[in-house]
Design goal:
Layout (H helix, E strand, L loop, with lengths): L1 H19 L2 E3 L12 E3 L10 E2 L18 E4 L7 E5 L4 E3 L30 E5 L2 E6 L5 E3 L10 E5 L6 E5 L4 E7 L6 E5 L6 E5 L4 E7 L4 E7 L6 E5 L4 E7 L5 E4 L8 E6 L5 E2 L5 E6 L14 E6 L13 E6 L15 E6 L13 E6 L16 E7 L4 E8 L2 E7 L4 E5 L5 E5 L7 E9 L4 E5 L2 H5 L1 E2 L7 E6 L6 E4 L5 E6 L8 E10 L2 E4 L5 E4 L28 E2 L14 H4 L5
Parallel strand pairs: 1-2, 3-4, 9-10, 10-13, 11-14, 12-15, 13-16, 14-17, 15-18, 16-19, 20-22, 23-24, 25-26
Antiparallel strand pairs: 4-5, 5-6, 7-8, 8-9, 21-41, 27-28, 28-29, 30-31, 32-38, 33-37, 34-38, 35-38, 36-37, 39-40
């Protein structure tokens, strides 16, 4: 009887299936819903998919010739687990909790193996309004508002409006804007064509507003502003740094500021809460502070400052390093803003730890171990001078050539020395002047039976010129009674003193010899020979430097200035983002 019931039930089910083409599985005997081919209903039991262990998503295994759309539960923990579907060529995982990223956030992720991105060499773009705004390239470079035109940059941002290309705000010890590049690109690069800032960093604590590190051949920080904005702006209201750029290669640059305007300033820097001053006509760097600029060449051959002016395309510097190397029509210009005691340039050499300045101020004060000031003229012919000094009336050329004659000092002032008087007060003694370049020598001699021969010092003889035009002059003073004397047989080697009228006296005398200095061959540093002519008499001399050779440029006493910060910022206070963009406002 049981067998007959089973057969009848099966026949009934087949009849239902064949008539309706629908199947219902339930416990209440209800018919399948009209919209469902298979209608399963239960309040306590679920639907169980067949379990597949799919080890390779690109092959059909473990199924054999599966139909497209076949669904199974993948139990493999590497490729799954989760619901998988065969697409006709591969298995794909369907969305399950913990497998896909959700729009409302995710929890329980593991940074070591959970990520948003790609596993191949395709870039990852980000869009709004179906327009690409940012791209993470396969080589790790991030570009904003660009698909990588400046793709050699670690971070590149372009702003064509009035916003900032890169804007960072930090109130702790971190960096507002930080970039690190170990290749040949730029660690941080911002480009702005509006009135905003290409790069702007704000830090109100001990961190750094803008920090760039470059270990290759590029720029640590590179900002380009082609509008009314600022290329790189760093502001720190605490004890940290406004901008730091570190370049770790001989050909790299820490911070580059470039202003394409004829009166623009490349970099404006202000420290110690001072107002920033800059020349209205523009300059490369304008720095204001208790110490305007401090630069350190950290290697044994490093140069603290390399500065080039006049659009010169070559940088000249000492291979052994120096505090500064300046190249230009004017190599170095410095003006101190102090009316009474300021010093324009203070130079200290030989690793000396102290410097000396004139208390009333001066254009320059230089301290060295052996040489305080060194001047060298490289010209190998015609007129030149190692140093030139003048006031309103007196001028002096030191160490140079004029019209073929070498001069130690060529001046319209008296040559003198200072000695002490009887009260140990300084008094002046003057050097005798002559219309010729003369050497003198002195000595004591004695007549023996009315005759004496005086031999001149061979060193003196070597350096005098004696001929018909330039005879030697001998002056003899007797120191005893005789018939008188005369001088004969004069030459560069010596002379004879003879008593008159055949006298045979034995008396002493003093003598003085004056002769023209011999011309001299000077071997120059390039190996060439230059002759200095000392045989002239009253040769024409130089005037003060000609007016055409001098340049007087008036510097306005009150230079153009801007306040870098007009808002008082206290430590710990955070400037709102809209204010932090431009402290000048």
């Amino acid at each position: 009887m049981k067998t007959i019931f089973t057969i009848l039930t099966t026949v009934a089910l087949l009849a239902v299936y064949s008539l309706n083409a629908q199947v219902a599985i339930n416990t209440d005997g209800s018919s399948p819903h009209s919209s469902a081919m298979l209608d399963i209903q239960s309040t306590t039991k679920g639907f169980s998919l067949p379990n597949f262990n799919i080890t390779d998503m690109s092959t059909a295994a473990p199924a054999t010739s599966p139909k497209t759309g076949l669904v199974a539960y993948n139990t493999n923990t590497t490729t799954g687990p989760g619901v998988a579907m065969w697409t006709g060529s591969k298995w794909v995982m369907l969305e399950l909790e913990g497998i896909n990223w959700k729009l409302l956030g995710n929890a329980g992720t593991n940074a070591s193996n959970n990520f948003v991105g790609t596993t191949d060499s395709v870039a990852l773009p980000f869009r709004t309004n179906n327009t690409e705004r940012m791209r993470v390239r396969s080589d790790g470079i991030v570009s904003v508002n660009s698909t990588g035109a400046f793709g050699v940059s670690t971070f590149y941002s372009l702003a064509s409006g009035n916003d900032d290309a890169i804007d960072g705000n930090a109130s702790g010890t971190g960096d507002a804007v930080y970039g690190q590049q170990t290749g040949n690109g730029n660690a941080i690069h911002g480009y702005a064509t509006g009135t905003g800032n290409a790069i702007y960093g704000y830090n109100n604590s001990t961190g750094r507003a803008v920090y760039g590190y470059q270990a290759g051949n590029g720029y640590a920080v590179h900002g380009s502003a082609w509008g009314a904005g600022t290329a790189v702006r760093g502001y720190n209201g605490g004890t940290g740094n406004g901008i730091i750029g570190i370049a770790n290669d001989d050909e790299a640059f820490g911070v580059v500021g470039y202003n394409a305007n004829s009166s623009g300033t490349g970099i404006i820097s202000s420290g110690n809460g001072n107002t920033a001053y800059y020349l209205a006509g523009g300059t490369g760097v304008a720095a204001t502070g208790n110490d305007g600029i401090y630069c350190l060449g950290a290697s044994s051959s490093g140069t603290g400052i390399k500065a080039v002016g006049n659009n010169i395309d070559t940088v000249f510097y000492l291979s052994g390093g120096s505090g500064g190397a300046f190249t230009g029509e004017t190599g170095l210009f410095a003006r101190v803003y102090n009316n009474s005691s300021g010093t324009g340039v203070i130079g200290v050499g030989n690793n000396i730890s102290t410097y000396h300045t004139y208390s009333n101020g001066s254009g320059g004060a230089f301290t060295g171990f052996r040489v305080g000031v060194y001047g060298y003229a490289t010209r190998t012919s015609f007129n030149r001078v190692g140093g030139y000094f003048e006031d309103n009336n007196t001028y002096a050329r030191v160490g140079g050539q004029w019209n073929g004659t070498a001069y130690g000092i060529l001046s319209n002032g008296a040559k003198s020395t200072i000695v002490k008087d009887l009260n140990d007060e300084p008094v002046i003694m003057y050097c005798p002047e002559a219309p010729e370049v003369l050497f003198q020598d002195y000595g004591i001699g004695k007549l023996i039976n009315g005759k004496a021969h005086i031999s001149l010092d061979p060193i003196f003889s070597k350096n005098i010129q004696i001929d018909k035009k330039h005879p030697v002059k001998v002056f003899v003073t007797l120191e005893g009674d005789c018939k008188g004397i005369y001088v004969t047989n004069k030459s560069a080697e010596g002379f004879d003193v003879i008593e008159l009228q055949g006298g045979t006296s034995n008396v002493s005398f003093s003598w003085q010899v004056v002769a023209t200095r011999a011309n001299e061959d000077f071997v120059q540093k390039d190996g060439s020979i230059e002759v200095s002519d000392f045989s002239k008499r009253f040769p024409p001399g130089p005037e003060k430097l000609e007016a055409s050779a001098l340049r007087s440029i008036s510097i306005p006493k009150s230079m153009s200035n801007k306040n870098v910060v007009t808002k008082d910022v206290k430590l710990g206070e955070i400037i709102p983002k809209e204010e932090a963009k431009d402290p000048e406002k």
